[in-house]
Amino acid sequence: MSCLYKILGVAKTANKIEIKQAYRKLAVQLHPDKHTQSPPRTRAAAVEKFKQITNAYEILVDDRKRAAYDLRSNQSESRQHNRQERSNAGQSRQNNRGGDTKSSAEGAQSRGGYTKSSPDGGGEAKSPNAAQSRQRHHLKLRAAAALRHLRRVCVEFLRFTVQVIVETVVRAAVEMLIRLMLEILIQLIKAIFQPSSKHNDEKKKK
């Protein structure tokens, strides 16, 4: 799946205004009506591209859909990063094994080919240590990847929470302002019509 931000040509930190501007600019260029006279391949490519930018816009302009997409995207990037780290670690282990084999062969040649192990097993003591070192290194890589993923999830959650809080506060402020304006209007109407009603009552009494 292509990155929606790349489809619209905006950064991942772009706000709604920037996303709308980018979408409108691309929509003007890629709208099917502008390619009615174009060759079939060009027209088909423009239609497909127009569908892609429309889908990207509908997701990124909606706060909930965008947060869900960012979360899935971050998880996918984290998995790819973990696979790359495992691949690099495996390549490093293979290189280390190749270097150890070469060193052992050179040492055997320098000793005239005599490779008998020592009676106390000292020659075999390095293998468990190397395995433990590789295991610790692998655990460190996994812990670092998990921390990066957790940090990204926390950032996305905080951003979504802040957006919800801001929208709620703004909505409450607008409702309060409307109520206040209505109360003021009611008071003004009462102030306008009450004196006339009092004047009519005085006339009736006279």
Features:
mainly alpha; Helix Hairpins; 82% helix; 0% strand
What do these coordinates show?
The chain has 206 residues and is mostly helical. The chain has a domain at 1-61: Helix Hairpins (Orthogonal Bundle). Helices cover 82% and strands 0% of the residues. It has helices at residues 4-8, 16-30, 40-60, 63-110, 126-205. Helix 2 (16-30) packs antiparallel against helix 3 (40-60) and helix 4 (63-110) packs antiparallel against helix 5 (126-205). The longest helix is centred in the C-terminal third of the chain and has 80 residues, at 126-205. The termini are far apart.
Backbone CA Rg = 35 Å
Q: What's the number of extended β-strand segments?
A: 0
Multimeric state:
single chain
Q: What is CATH's topology name of one domain?
A: Helix Hairpins
Q: What separation lies between the terminal Cα atoms?
A: 87 Å
Name the CATH architecture of one domain. Answer: Orthogonal Bundle
Q: What summary fits the major beta sheet?
A: none
According to CATH, the homologous superfamily of one domain is DnaJ domain
Number of helices: 5
Strand percentage, roughly? Answer: under 5%
Order of helices and strands: HHHHH
Helix content: over 70%
